[in-house]
Amino acid sequence: MRRIPAVVTTCAATLAFPVPAGLAAAAPASPASPASPAEQSYPVVPYENVKVRQLPKQDSAYLATLIAGQSYTAYCWTHGQTITDHGYTNDIWIGFADGFSSAVYFKGDQYANLPASAQC
Known about the structure:
mainly beta, 3-stranded antiparallel sheet, single chain
């Protein structure tokens, strides 16, 4: 597994990971795509290590791992594959600059404390 270094801005880290050549072109189109870093951002904190995926589904390409307890910058949320873990079930995925993680693994409400209006 590859770890993402925490690049701290004011109170959160911004995720940006390289996508291997050819991966982006081969990926199927998705109605949800991560938001632009120029848009509103929100700090999120995973309560356990969580994988970042290219698309909001568990079998999508793995991009990186977010470390439990660290703060990261999220830009939006979207509906994706339903995930059940630790007694929680949710189809909300948090959008980062380059990918998505299931909201099941983040502190806060069903949207990891992103506002309902922050939909991707």
